[in-house]
Amino acid sequence: MVAVRPAQATDLPAISALDARLTGASKPDYWRDRLALGLHFLVAETDKGAFAGFIAGEVRAWEFGQPPAGWVFAVQIDPKLRLKGAGSALFEALVGRFKAEGVTRVRTLVDRKDHMILSFFRAQGMVAGPSLQLDKELP
Amino acid sequence: MKLQTATRLGLYATLELARDPAQTLSSADLAERFGVSTHHLAKVLRTLAAAGLVHAERGASGGYRFTGNRRRVTLMDIVALFEPAPGHRAKEPGEDTAIGASLQRVLQEIDEIAEATLRSVSLETLLGSSHVG
CA-CA 20 to 30 A from A52: which of A43, B85, B107, B121? Predict the structure, then answer.
């Protein structure tokens, strides 16, 4: 069983360390700024109080011309504590907060080669959205 | 996206058996359910069995049973058994030209998106969303 609660400044070292371990890029300032911005930032703990992971998102209106929707910016779960429902619990808690703000749609952007995170969002019932992301390498 | 008949039958058979891993269905049962020939389906089931996704039970109540992991097996795992792997097909005439290469990049983009989609949908996710699991 996991418990979900709002992230606090004291969680930042654990959040930053987990993200650095999973992405290979350390960015403590980014996570400190994100938390300070007041977006929905939640952490999951095991019943023994161990940090299991986090999720961050916020409701944004008219991004890329789209009506208000809840955006999931990041979700990371400690690899040792996966498949215990922490990711789903965080997602459900975040979606609950989005709904409380009156939106009826949740969206995210995922690396199409990251099949694990794609599968996670699919398992939450998410499907391809109306937008296609386009990129160009600048010379 | 157009899938070969064998791929479609492989998906149908695996999903039908994965709905209830305790059930055993004969190739005739499955063929009747999908309105296809038993002969065609039997070949598909042999491929699925060789991949370890289903197991053939012998005897009077024989047939096939799902033996994979619903949460781990994705649609791509089944598609890959029957369709040529992207990038492993023979070169076609014209691909060496500048236009051919540009066109190839667009087609590869489509293949990558299709593969990412198929790889992200587990049998569990699909059965859950179709309300038949």
Answer: B121
